[in-house]
Amino acid sequence: MSTAPPRRRFGLGLTGLLLSATLLPLSGCAGPAAAQRGMVLVPDFADLAERVLPAVVNIAVTSEQVAQLPPELRGTPLERYFRDRLRNRRQEVSGAGSGFIIDPAGFVVTNNHVVGNATRVVVSLQDGTELPARVVGTDDLTDLALLKIDARSRLPSLAWGSSSQARVGSWVLAAGNPFGLGGSVTSGIVSARGREIGAGPFDDFLQTDAAINPGNSGGPVFNMAGEVIGISTAIYSPSGASAGIGFATPSDLARPVIEQLLRDGRVERGWLGVSVQDLVPEDGRAARRGVLVAGIERNSPAGRAGLRPGDVVVAINGERVETSRALVRNVAAVPPGQTVRLTVLREGRERELPVQVGRRPGQG
Fold first, then answer.
1. Exposure of 3 in the CB half-sphere (CA atoms within 13 A)
2. Do residues 191 and 2 make contact, with C-beta atoms less than 8 angstroms apart?
3. In the chain, pLDDT over 90 holds for what percent of residues?
4. Cα atoms in the Cβ-side hemisphere of radius 13 Å centred on 22
């Protein structure tokens, strides 16, 4: 199934969080004198940073790509000469990113766009140790990747937290490798939840006021308990530099993906084979809640089950669905081959259709 993402200008792959340094009228976070004045200092993140940083890593990647003609030569008499010289010539390209150890055996989480088509990946620990890494598996749709490094001893690791528990205004700490400078931490708050930025059908980002920069991609975002509740992924930036709006993949979305990669080396998602859209109000009247089936692919699970264009899906296994994104996510979470019960509205009447979910194309 597909749903058209909104067209917005976002810069993917630049990440971090902004350190706040001001006095806030909060309660219960400071000493007696500050509390009596009704003012408190920004939390001291030193203990938290000391505890989590050993499990945060820097990632250096090397990849090969076809040599490109310099822009200044395009349209000049030298263009043809250099195109002939550069034809089929490949060049090495280096990049840097961040990640974190999620298992003491040496499994490292990062962004898929960090490793990309890398021919070589090197992970650097906080003590400076450099270890070659192999890519266990990747997932384009959530921009996640799992790496494996081999160390002589068990490594420090981090625990997942629940992103659903993060409230707007909650303090967060981020760590990573901005501009390749090495382990750095920044702090900020959760600015918003459930952001859709046009990155894909599973957009559900935490927004932070993070100072996000190149090299921080794939780094963890922590709650105050030191649990990973997000993975720094993208920023909104008209200039390419931080504008104070950063996005992190929430842990509740990332964790099952990483667990599948750890177990199987790939992610399999359920698929119906329909294009869907949200219902829109007509003539100023409120639209009926549900998801309109706009089209059905030939020989798809939905087609074989008898679903028709114009049907309105209102529930999956008895649970109501009101948006196309919710339908896509719920179906994607169903293992291929399993049967679900769709409640659809057709010609003014509700009926139930059993559908055996297929495997999303491109996943084997």
1. 23
2. no
3. 51
4. 7
Instruction: Give catalytic residue positions.
Output: 113, 143, 217
Determine the Cα–Cα distance for residues 8 and 175; give it in Å rounded to an integer. Answer: 27
Count other C-beta atoms under 10 Å from residue 192's C-beta: 13
What are the residues whose beta carbons fall under 8 Å from the beta carbon of 340, sequence distance 6 or more? 270, 316, 317, 331, 334, 354, 355, 357
Tokens of 123: 């992970």
* List of domains in the chain: 11-52+159-264 (2.40.10.10), 55-149 (2.40.10.10), 270-359 (2.30.42.10)
Q: How many other CB atoms are there within 10 angstroms of residue 290's CB atom?
A: 23
Nearest to 53 by CA among 176, 166, 151: 176
pLDDT at 182 (0 to 100): 83
pLDDT digits (tens, 9 = 90+) for 263-320: 999 998 999 999 998 887 665 555 567 899 999 998 899 999 999 999 999 999 999 9
**Which of 25 and 210 is assigned the larger pLDDT?**
210
Element (H, E) at 51: helix 46-52
Look at residue 285 in the predicted model and tell me its pLDDT: 55
SS3 106: coil
Residue tagged 């992103």 (tokens):
163
* 298 Cβ neighbours under 8 A, 6+ residues apart: none
Among candidate residues 109, 133, 138, the one with its CA nearest the CA of residue 248: 109
- State the pairing for strand pair 274-278/205-208: unpaired
